[in-house]
Write a structure and sequence with these properties.
It contains 8 helices and 8 strands, in the order βαβααβαββαβααβαβ. By secondary structure, it is of the alpha/beta class. It has a single domain, classed as Rossmann fold. The protein has an 8-stranded mixed beta sheet, sandwiched between helices. β3, α4 and β4 form a beta-alpha-beta unit. The longest helix is centred in the middle third of the chain and has 10 residues.
């Protein structure tokens, strides 16, 4: 059994755990705009706003930078004083490193999650942490939906499901070492009969949080990639790779 699986905890809200890692140092928040383009109206698309998680991190961290690929939304929020960069999280080169990178509910949206994880590792300072949250593939409410409708509820922009084992494996293949797992229960009020399985077996919780750091290279430091990084001025727009 992995060490991280032997010390699993349950947190009422993800912010309580994330706060531990963003109070000090430089923080990078990935996917900081709240958007569901497939279901949003034109007005909602125009009036972009930051995620609740980004707002929370801003309230806790004295030094946070957000990244999102929506150029219009980023420009709009930059004008309001937000420290944002328009970039693709898979190919971004921000020219600096961070003590903590937060990836809240984003990895399940990505077409190339392994490539993205490797790139995020390049942006971590030695000793830095990646804090990642994602829906749980074995969330009990999905079981009820399959029993009732023969179909789970799937976000229209999701590309994959993860559980702690598969995500930990992906992280290890991408040069990380997992150090912490925390289950995140559903926030919605549900009937007792629906939430009882999750109380009996934590593997039925709605989502989970994983904390990881760059794997040790044998010299006491996380593995680092060769190559120089490019400095970008404040408010820079980094185009997505073709």
């Amino acid at each position: 059994m992995p060490k991280w699986l032997a010390t699993v905890t349950v947190a009422a809200v993800r912010e309580s755990v994330i706060a531990e890692y963003v109070r000090r140092g430089d923080v990078l928040d990935l996917g900081c705009l709240d958007a569901r383009r497939e279901v949003m109206s034109i007005e909602e698309t125009i009036n972009q706003f930051p995620t609740k998680l980004h707002e929370f991190i801003r309230s806790v961290s004295p030094s946070v930078v957000g990244v999102d690929y929506d150029a219009h939304g980023v420009a709009r929020l930059q004008a309001q004083g937000y420290r944002l960069v328009c970039a693709d999280v898979e190919t971004m080169d921000l020219g600096r490193r961070f003590d903590t990178i937060v990836a809240g509910e984003i990895i399940e949206h990505l077409p190339n999650p392994g490539c993205s994880l490797v790139n995020w590792r390049r942006h971590l300072k030695p000793g830095g942490r990646l804090v990642l949250t994602t829906p749980n593939a074995f969330y009990i409410n999905q079981v009820w939906k399959i029993l009732k409708y023969n179909d789970p509820q799937v976000h229209e922009e999701h590309t994959a499901w993860y559980d702690p084992h598969t995500l930990a494996r992906l992280l290890e293949m991408s040069g990380y070492e997992v150090e912490r797992l925390c289950w995140l229960p559903a926030r919605r009020t549900q009937g007792r009969w629906r939430v009882l399985p999750a109380r009996l077996r934590s593997y039925f919780h709605q989502s989970f949080l994983i904390v990881a750091h760059a794997a040790d290279d044998g010299n006491g430091h996380g593995r680092e990639e060769d190559g120089s990084a490019t400095e970008y001025p404040a408010g820079a727009v980094i185009r997505r790779a073709a």
